[in-house]
Amino acid sequence: MTAETPAALSAAGRLMLTIAISDYDHVRDFASGRVRAEGIDTTFLTLTIEEIFFRFVKFREWAVSEMSMGKYVALRSQGDTSLTAIPVFPSRVFRHSSIYVRRDGAVRAPADLKGRKIGVPEWAQTAAVYSRGALIHQYGLKLQDIDWYQAGVNEPGRTEKVKLNLPAGTRYTAVPGKSLDAMLLAGELDAILTAHPPASFERGDPKIVRLFEDYRAVEEAYWRDTGIFPIMHVVAIRSDVLAPHPWIAVNLFNAFEEAKRRSVARALEVTATRFPVPWIYDLAAKAQAQFGELFPYGVEPNRPTLEAFLQYAFEQGVCHRRLAVDELFADALASRFKV
What range does the domain containing 304 cover? Predict the structure, then answer.
């Protein structure tokens, strides 16, 4: 697939845009056409997250894409303005649950990680940025306390996709010929931080466990203490598409917002359960009471999370300079979201 032309119009005069995004229920009404973006005809590509990120970061093959928050801010901090985000956050996950250790290893608590060997699939992976941020800001560790290793989670060969600016004294080694899972099982690593669980954990190998086995309690306490609900992904528009049509930022935002609203309504429906999960309506209602709006889009509801992530990314050398929140999003949305 070659890069989409910046300003293709349909016969009806609407802008034709291809959007690549994972198959989320809170996007599905937009992807299916039940929700439309005013003035835009859309073609949705449903691909794996890894393929979306690789092809969009490397080749910019389509106009609008789900995008790693870590990679987006890394590029932005280096002066790359070829992509412009809108404050739509399709993936959010607390990441204390993303730290894996050996059951028979020496690591029982975060403090035990000092002086140890920790693996990451990519230093700039958004999940790893949040996990390291928690280790530093909650538990008092320093990047320089740890020997860091980078490799694919379950297969060798993964590499960084953006240029890093690691802080002085950070010990970082790429291991292209091994996988994190194999190294953890062999005792060559003491822990790994990864969004995708290692294969050994997924198949139920008792040797690999989460550092925080009661991770939900830890993550709920983190939310209460900080107001941070980690944002993993953002929606980005190619700037050459956006520049001649700045209105598409608002219209795309509105469509994503309406699709999410409908999804939340389905989750809360009591009469006829829309998801094959017992008591989903009760779980959703309790989450709504705890968080307020579920998965809020826009800037202001997410400012504590955005500010924290930009701080973590700069401290860890993912961002080459400290970005401000108002540098991240399309100008057409600035007044609406008080950026």
Answer: 15-92+231-265+292-331
